[in-house]
Amino acid sequence: VALFTRYTLQNTSDYPLLCTASGQKPLPAFEIGKDNINLPPQNGCILPSMSMSSWFTKSNKLRISLHDEKGSEAFIDLEALSGFTEFFLEIHDDIFPHRMAAFGMSLQPVIYGLHVSSQVVLIVPRYVISNESATAVAVRQCLVQDDIDGLTIEAKQRGTLQTWKPGKKREGNYFDLFLKKHKNVSEDSLIFIQFCPKETGYGWSGPICVSSIGRFFMKFRRSEDMVIDGINKDTLQDGKLKQFASVDVVQENTSFVLHFTKPPKVALPYRVENCLNKASIMYFQKDSDESDMLGPQESEQYAWDDSSLPRKLVVRIVDTPALREIKIDKISPWKPFLKMRSRLNLDFSFSNGLSSEKQGFDDSFELRVFKIGYEVYADGLTRVLRICEQAENPKAEKIQRPIAHAQFRISYMCIHLLDKGQSDEMLQSPSTILMATFQRVSADSVITDRHKNMDVAVYSVNVDEKWDGASFGSVFRMNKLQGDALNENILRIVCVLNSSNSSVKQVHYCSIILQAD
Q1: Residue 295 half-sphere exposure, CB side, CA atoms within 13 Å?
Q2: Mean pLDDT: which of 89-98, 349-358, 410-419 is highest?
Q3: Between the CA of residue 92 and those of 29, 54, 389, 425, what are the distances in Å?
Q4: In this predicted structure, what is the pLDDT of residue 237?
Q5: Residue 346: is its pLDDT beyond 60?
Q6: Burial class (CB in 10 A: 0-12, 13-18, 19+), 328
Q7: Which of the pair, 491 or 282, is modelled with greater confidence?
Q8: Which of 201, 247, 358, 379 could disulfide-pair with 226, CB 3.0 to 4.6 Å?
Q9: What pLDDT shows up at residue 236?
């Protein structure tokens, strides 16, 4: 005989919990944290970390609090619980701002040989950080722990994110009170965190929302005035001045798990190419204080410094007043770098402290500035911003020179579908179920420097049944009685692919025409 309670409580978090009925009086303050509390099973239970306990109380309304620390309480109605929910317990101690323990809760079936009407109330940590890189990383909450080192998670380890309750802001006037009354309440519940590698000299990344499912990229910069082992910044390679990482936010059961990977295992979302022969460019995210330099005929991977700032890249040609805001998320054909209004007031004596002693221009460069432009194209999943000069003959770019060409013709082809149940050893000739014949099959392929063109045409297709007792006489028939002079095809497929070294195939044009009698 197996006996089950209606609910079984399971705690997989790092905090020991005290679970009692909502109508029961709370325990005295001097008994909180004691493991030997005389708590009858019908009144509740104590759930240490990584433990389970049956719920013997008749009440379905649960009061949850921290067992070893003073804090707030959460009330959960188990009968009203469907799917999953979350709750927070504020820890009352001398630390300000107050710490918050975040939990996720869901109902799980009981794993048993027979069907039973019992359920497991699973309590898990709401936010989990998984460090999948080879070095340690620090994590802190934005706008709350700005002066705190944060939580350190070692390589290949997991850790529960501890959140903090922001301090209450005092509204200064009636206008602030009006905005608070009409704003979205859920905006206050969004928690943003920052990462920082545990390496000397690197700063914190931009904010990442812990409850936004998806993949996010971040950048870590080394301080410019940093001196490491007697080597100045100018002598360090550019690859060591900034590092990139990715965070994959996924939902596992009722937990948000943030998988931190440095360096990323996938290509970065952007790349900047400077195709100018003599000029360097400076670029930075709009409203950001950090900038990057790119010399002539150089390219570099790029990721946003701060995802909360506008997703626009500001590009300036060094030693010139040429400045442009570019949306690099949107594919764009070649456009002039300078707008018409900017060309009227162009002053090449402008430097604004961005001049380069190594960079010198002749008089002809002032005229070539008007031919400088930019384009945004896709290379697989990467958006590429290219700064280049306009071709002398604009029509020359439209000419596609073939690199390779292939074609083949098949006048007649027959395919037999054989019965799998028949054995070749028992019968001299296997039994045919279906027979398909194709006539005048042609395929042409032309590869240019920009596209891969493929054209497949089939003139005639006949599919017939070949077994006794079939419910149909013909599956498909086309152009059987037509003459060979007829140029109409039953099937024609035209596909144009963009030439790229990426594993992602980009379809520029595709057409499939199927016409039967």
Answers
A1: 6
A2: 410-419
A3: 12, 29, 63, 82
A4: 44
A5: no
A6: buried
A7: 282
A8: 201
A9: 45
Q: How far is CA 114 from CA 9, 109, 119, 437, in A?
A: 20, 11, 13, 56
Contact between 309 and 286 under an 8 Å Cβ cutoff? The reply is yes
Residues in the chain: 517
Sign of CA dihedral 405, 390, 498, 502: positive
Neighbours of 71 (CB within 10 A): 21
220 forms beta bridges with: 243
Tokens 């499912």 locate to 213
- Structure tokens belonging to residue 314: 């500001």
Task: Report how far residue 401's alpha carbon sits from residue 405's, in angstroms, rounded to the nearest whole number.
Answer: 11
CA triple 284-290-295, angle to 5 deg: 55
* Residue that the structure tokens 């499939």 belong to: 512
The dihedral through the CA atoms of 467, 468, 470, 474 has a sign that is positive
Confidence band for 75, pLDDT divided at 50, 70 and 90: very high
Is the CA virtual torsion 460, 463, 466, 470 positive or negative? Answer: negative
Q: What pTM was computed for the model?
A: 0.69
Write out the E strands in 337-473. 372-379, 382-389, 402-418, 432-448, 451-465
Mean pLDDT of the region 110-130: 84
Share in percent of the chain as helix, strand, coil (round to 5): 10, 45, 45
Q: Where are the domains of the chain?
A: 7-28+36-125, 128-168+189-226+238-261, 270-340+366-389, 433-479+488-514
What Cα–Cα distance (Å) separates residue 200 from each residue in 133, 162, 223, 229, 413? 17, 24, 9, 11, 69
Kindly state the tokens that stand for 338: 């300078």
Sign of CA dihedral 327, 329, 330, 333: positive
CA 287 centroid distance within chain? 23
Single out the residue of 161, 158, 245 nearest to residue 199, CA to CA. 245
Backbone angles phi, psi at 321, to 5 degrees: -80, 10
pLDDT, tens digit (0-9, with 9 covering 90-100), for 249-294: 999 988 999 999 999 999 999 999 999 888 899 999 999 999 999 9
Banded pLDDT at 58 (limits 50, 70, 90): confident
The distance from CA 169 to its chain's CA centroid, rounded to whole angstroms, is 33
Residue 374 has pLDDT above 50, yes or no: yes
